[in-house]
């Protein structure tokens, strides 16, 4: 299979490309990535001579047309992905997540190329603590500019599939963790703070719940959907990993052998989603997927080791990420 992977220099895309190259020698991979602040070619260094890397924008219609004309399938990871950035400056989210997806859809439509769209559980909004988990039938109700633009892109895919007969599938996954995640995100931020001797920073009271899944389990599900998913179908991806943020911070502190109360409460995120939770019954029963990483503490410990062992990968980004949080007005509220 000749595969075009958008956003392959980002967190999930780079893990996808590395595993695809290692496990699927019959697949040839072209990565299209704009190398924004979130893209890092070092994440692909070990596979650099086994892929084609194209530095470009998914919203570049001519470039996308040319690349899509030469492949059998597209897996679309590229996005502006960070909620906090979308609150500070929404425009890049509209441009990449909506206009960029439009550009890909027009090309796969023209060449009748198989398309898989990678999306997020955040399109469904948030849940009360005791509400049932999201399913494929949950109504769209996004809260932030990030999740609204991801929801918009999903709706474009659904409309293009119905109106133009696209061979498309969608997946909406919960919060990923693992190696190569940008230090702006929750878990890598706290791990790298601790490596630097700083305290973890918890938004508000820290009682928001996220449903954690290891990035490799997400990517195995993407392959299952790409190979065996039904056209037009959405599959929710999640590994029953619900934890509140305060518990996660305490687990990270424990992995460093530190006092579990050794963190700071900081300014809460405006519009902060209360809880996400995924019901992955369809993925499990129809496609036979199951997570390999079932022990979050063990997966977290491996992730801590990875950041300790790969400081040269994240160090160039750390000061900038912390400056962005300070510039956005993040204040320490207390410990
Ligand atoms: P990321 O921010 O780490 O990586 C995004 C990549 O896309 C970067 O390499 C960046 O350079 C590239 N990119 C951005 N704009 C581009 C453009 N206009 N043209 C080409 N490339 C561009 O994101 P991630 O966490 O790896 O997320 C990947 C996808 O998975 C996104 O679609 C995101 O919405 C979705 N998702 C993420 C999570 C999560 O927990 N991180 C969960 C569910 C779904
Ligand atoms: O320093 C922090 N302290 C903190 O308490 C940061 C950066 C975050 N948080 C909280 C906010 C969230 O409740 O931790 C939780 C996770 O935050 P993020 O890592 O920013 O993730 P989230 O907003 O939940 O979105 C993530 O999962 C869904 C990804 O960034 C999205 O791309 C994906 O769609």
Automatic annotation (TrEMBL):
The UniProt record lists the NAD(P)-binding domain at 4-293
Describe the reaction catalysed, as an equation: dTDP-alpha-D-glucose = dTDP-4-dehydro-6-deoxy-alpha-D-glucose + H2O
Q: Which CDD domains match?
A: dTDP_GD_SDR_e
Top EC class, one word: lyase
Q: What is an example of a Pfam family matching this protein? A: GDP_Man_Dehyd
EC number of the protein: 4.2.1.46
Its cofactor is: NAD(+)
UniProt entry keywords in alphabetical sequence? Lyase, NAD
Matching InterPro entries:
dTDP_Gluc_deHydtase (IPR005888), NAD(P)-bd_dom (IPR016040), NAD(P)-bd_dom_sf (IPR036291)
Q: Which family does it belong to?
A: Belongs to the NAD(P)-dependent epimerase/dehydratase family. dTDP-glucose dehydratase subfamily.
Under NCBIfam families, the record lists: dTDP_gluc_dehyt
Q: Tell me what this protein is called.
A: dTDP-glucose 4,6-dehydratase
**What gene is behind this protein?**
rfbB
């Amino acid at each position: 299979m000749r595969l075009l992977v958008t956003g392959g220099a980002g967190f999930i895309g780079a893990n996808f490309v590395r595993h695809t190259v290692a496990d699927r020698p019959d697949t040839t991979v072209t990565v299209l990535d704009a190398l924004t602040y979130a893209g890092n070619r070092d994440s692909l260094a070990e596979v650099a001579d086994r892929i084609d890397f194209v530095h470009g924008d998914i919203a570049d219609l001519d470039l996308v047309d040319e690349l899509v004309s030469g492949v059998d399938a597209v897996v679309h990871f590229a996005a502006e992905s960070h909620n906090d950035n979308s609150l500070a400056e929404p425009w890049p989210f509209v441009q990449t997540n909506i206009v960029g997806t439009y550009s890909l859809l027009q090309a796969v439509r023209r060449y009748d190329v198989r398309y898989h769209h990678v999306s997020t559980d955040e399109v469904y909004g948030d849940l009360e603590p005791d509400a049932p988990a999201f399913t494929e039938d949950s109504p769209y109700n996004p809260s932030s500019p990030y999740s609204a633009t991801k929801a918009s892109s999903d709706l474009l895919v659904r409309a293009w599939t119905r109106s133009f007969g696209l061979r498309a599938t969608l997946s909406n996954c919960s919060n990923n963790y693992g190696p190569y995640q940008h230090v702006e995100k929750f878990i890598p931020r706290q791990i790298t703070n601790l490596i630097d001797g700083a305290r973890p920073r918890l938004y508000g009271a820290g009682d928001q719940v996220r449903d954690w899944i290891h990035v490799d389990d997400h990517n195995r599900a993407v392959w299952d959907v790409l190979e065996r998913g039904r056209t037009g179908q959405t599959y929710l991806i999640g590994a029953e990993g619900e934890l509140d943020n305060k518990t996660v911070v305490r687990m990270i502190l424990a992995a460093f052998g530190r006092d579990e109360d050794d963190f700071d409460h900081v300014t809460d995120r405006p519009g902060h989603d209360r809880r996400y939770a995924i019901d992955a019954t369809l993925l499990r029963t129809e496609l036979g997927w199951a997570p390999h990483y079932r022990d979050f503490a063990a997966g977290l410990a491996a992730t801590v080791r990875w950041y300790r062992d790969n400081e040269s990968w994240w160090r160039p980004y750390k000061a900038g990420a912390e400056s962005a949080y300070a510039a956005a007005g993040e204040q320490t509220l207390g410990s």
